[in-house]
Amino acid sequence: MSKPDEKASMRRVIVLGGFGFFGGVAVNRLRTEGLSPLIGSRRQSADVVIDVEDHQSIRSALCAGDIVVDVVGPFQRRTTALVEAAIEIGFDVVDLADSLAFVQSIYDMKDRIDAAGIRVFTACSSVSTVSAAMIAIAEVRRPVRVTGILVPATRYTAVEATAASLFFSVGRPIRVFDDKTLASQPGWRSARRFRLPKPLGTTMGYSFESADSITLPRIWPTLETANFFVDTNVTGLNLVFSVAARFPLLRQVIDKYQRWGLPLSRYLGHSAGALGCEIEDESGNVTRVTLTSSDQGYLIPVVPAVLVAQRLTENAVIDHGLVTPDRHVAPQALMEYLQCLGVKLSFERDSEAPAIF
């Protein structure tokens, strides 16, 4: 009989979308942790040739016991085909989904996922694992409002899938958790000024649809508001998107040709990035938690999935079924890991320091 650690080492770790930017980062980090991930892609040169939207392809490529890290964006265009196959075949799924609609569709499958005995970690990224970890380390046990701000390290992350995900909210109706319900509002039409730690400084965030609006209220029933803002971190692009949000014809033009503008976005973008969370409790006290980096911010979305995959190979995950973001990784361990990678953690309360946001 094999020992537990020997059985764990036999489990395949497959990174779907491993040739993409974030997929490549995930592969490299998993290798750094001593694992041997396989790259899954439609390309014939992949270790595992697979189309994540083709049921037969998935069933031919994946096996019971596999650990599948899904980095195939944009998730706004994805179906639940992979998780459907996971239920049938018996493999675990860890995805970096940020799409509210996609994550909602996974939550709608909760009973089937739980009954199958597999593990599914959806929104295992900045949204919503890091958001949940920030609330936990802030020690706000009964939050009523959570406001997120993302400033991507666009010098690195301005790639096709990421750009499509970001542009999805521009000028479209988006859903935001407000007054304890999902309310519709125009995307990118409302803005807030944020004062972030160096090297970011003052920035302007625009309303963005986020899976936090459905994941966080399930964990903290006291939440009344969960909203999210994004700054493109590309010189001039916030203004362009703001105009496009009000003029559908311009939006259509940008949507059609945005892939051709990606090299320019990387050139005009910045290497520094940040992710922040403002948490308000029932007494009106506000705690602000921010992760910033001058050149390693692109690691933040990937690290949660890497840590989960590592724990799965070690048989260190107790949970089965659909695992909520607050149980993906230990919050303190996540923050310590990010800090070891050069990401700075800032933690402030109103009574202790001037507001960051």
Walk me through what this model shows.
The structure is a single chain. This protein has 2 domains: 4-125 and 300-330, NAD(P)-binding Rossmann-like Domain (Rossmann fold, 3-Layer(aba) Sandwich); 126-298 and 337-349, 2-Layer Sandwich (Dihydrodipicolinate Reductase, domain 2), CATH 3.30.360.10. Helices cover 36% and strands 24% of the residues. The chain has 15 helices and 16 strands. The strands form 2 sheets. Strands 7, 8, 9, 10, 11, 12, 13, 14 and 16 form a 9-stranded mixed β-sheet that branches. Strand 10 (191-196) and strand 11 (201-207) form a beta hairpin.
Low-confidence stretches: 1-8, 352-356
CATH first level of the largest domain: Alpha Beta
Q: In total, how many beta strands?
A: 16
Main structural class: alpha/beta
DSSP summary: helix tally: 15
In what range is the share of β-strand residues? Answer: 15-25%
What number of structural domains do the residues give? 2
Distance between the termini: 56 Å
